């Protein structure tokens, strides 16, 4: 194959990796749009170094026993391709992953060489997100963090039992080892740079990971408990949840009754946002009696309905953490409430101006001396409030012939 034929194969193989917030690629070029933490849209070349894998993971399109077109870039080919795209302003960065060639170290060494040549010889100043191959040596993991902006080690499946059943050549410790090393070094370098701006950078955009959802039997509670532990112990920036798509046939895998579990993936992202930004814990959102997220309501609204004893919340007295737990109030509107009420008592009109979503919040709050929704409150009739919330977000079947599911936000 020539370089462009390899690009067609290896860009197509990369599209199943969800560990960067990217949309679909444009044609067979591998150029996709990714979103940074501050909301900027960045064009990336999303590509594999190789899809010639020595592993035989049940869920993977590139598994060694699957019959697909195989290709491998040389280091020089990929460096040249990236620079051609970059100089023509097609891309602002590179997302680089790979199947495991003969060994993790051989694969990782080639990937690191690509990034190092881009940085040193080509003076490439764009963004680099590099996947770290589980089982790679600490020295290669260190070099990856020194040249990449973001690094990620895919944890793949939510439990060691599922990993050994579906990906028997992968080892849980081989995944957690590099992840722990990266998290520790990222934390050390952040501390160093606080003391001196001249301290060298190490993966300044942090590390992320990916979990496949629906290929194994773990509950949402197990998944969120694992994510919570990774955030706490591995200095992790993001966990990406990837709904299982049946791209290969294997008797160890489930047969989805109605396509990929995209609604479940969506709810997990919402719950993950609550863990990272709203002060919730995984144990609060789900327990052993209800181990799966509600598919009809977003996780915060579902939590509020299960805990009517927390409500109603007095908007003019509640602290920031309590305000964040009210459906219809997000981070921005909670901060605006704290700022505005220093000067005057807030009423319904004031909440509307601030940006509170009253069609959701009204059942959970009091303000300006009285309740907002006088006929029903969540602490009195939670089942009625649930139905009204579902009606407000169009999640119940519409009476007309047209039926459309509108996914509610977190607020």
TrEMBL record:
Its cofactor is [4Fe-4S] cluster. Keywords: Iron, Iron-sulfur, Metal-binding, S-adenosyl-L-methionine. It comes from the Bacteria. The keyword tRNA processing does not apply. PANTHER family: ENDONUCLEASE/EXONUCLEASE/PHOSPHATASE FAMILY DOMAIN-CONTAINING PROTEIN 1 (PTHR21180), TYPE II SECRETION SYSTEM PROTEIN K (PTHR21180:SF9). This is DNA modification/repair radical SAM protein. It comes from Prosthecochloris ethylica. The lineage of its organism: Bacteria, Pseudomonadati, Chlorobiota, Chlorobiia, Chlorobiales.
